[in-house]
Design goal:
Elements: H1 14-31, H2 57-71, E1 75-80, H3 83-91, E2 97-103, E3 115-117, E4 135-140, H4 147-160, E5 161-170, H5 174-181, E6 184-185, E7 200-204
Parallel strand pairs: 1-2, 1-4, 2-3, 4-5
Antiparallel strand pairs: 5-7, 6-7
Helix pairs in contact: 2-3, 4-5
């Protein structure tokens, strides 16, 4: 049989092949990032269908600094639907606190034992190892700007925290946040990597450094 039949097999151009290889490399990195980039914000891309919008580097750093200060040395921090703050905390390479990331998106399971699968629709469906009131501070960012979402997530927050709460959500949720969690709006305004239509704010139930800057 002649090898001339090989001429009938479609061949990818070098440009198309290079683009395809780059695509597969990016997909691999998103599902199994490693090394120093493992905790970089954006290494796992936003999924808009899950209402994911990552904080800017500056905001993530500021919020990470805040919860470290609040938790204190040896403290425990819970990041509930706030993965970019978790990533920034780990990117700081500090060992004087512990963290758990409570997240619905299982791509974040790459973070091992610190990842806790979480669905706000089942606010208290948590592993046995997560004891009540076992975190010095909880930072939470509900995925949706609705009172139903905030009410359910509030159950989780109140279960996890020993008292201190840092909530990041829309300005339109101020009244509901005060009613459900006893938090007040701070002067600090969080920013995201993309411009969002809704104004976002931070809320706390303690004396916070976030209230000292505009």
């Amino acid at each position: 049989m002649s090898d001339s039949n090989d001429d009938d097999i479609p061949q990818l151009s070098s440009h198309t092949l290079a683009a395809l290889q780059e695509f597969y490399a990016e997909q691999k990195q998103q599902t199994d990032p490693g090394g120093d980039n493992k905790y970089s914000i954006g290494i796992i891309e936003e999924n808009w269908q899950l209402s994911q919008f990552w904080y800017s580097q500056e905001t993530a750093f500021r919020l990470a600094e805040e919860v470290i200060a609040v938790a204190g040395e040896g403290g425990r921090i819970a990041c509930v639907s706030a993965p970019s703050v978790y990533q920034k905390l780990r990117e700081l390479h500090r060992e004087d606190f512990s963290i758990c990331i409570f997240e619905y998106d299982k791509r974040f399971a790459i973070y091992g034992e610190e990842f806790i699968f979480y669905n706000y629709n089942n606010p208290l469906d948590l592993p046995e190892k997560i004891a009540a009131h076992s975190f010095d501070v909880v930072i939470a960012d509900p995925p949706y700007l609705s009172e139903e979402c905030l009410r359910k997530m509030s159950e989780t927050i109140k279960y996890l925290t020993q008292g201190k709460i840092l909530l990041c959500t829309g300005a339109i949720m101020e009244e509901a946040a005060a009613k459900l969690l006893g938090v007040k709006m701070c002067k600090f305004i969080p920013k995201h990597t993309r411009n969002l239509a809704n104004e976002f704010r931070c809320y706390v139930n303690y004396d916070s450094g976030l209230d000292s800057e505009i």
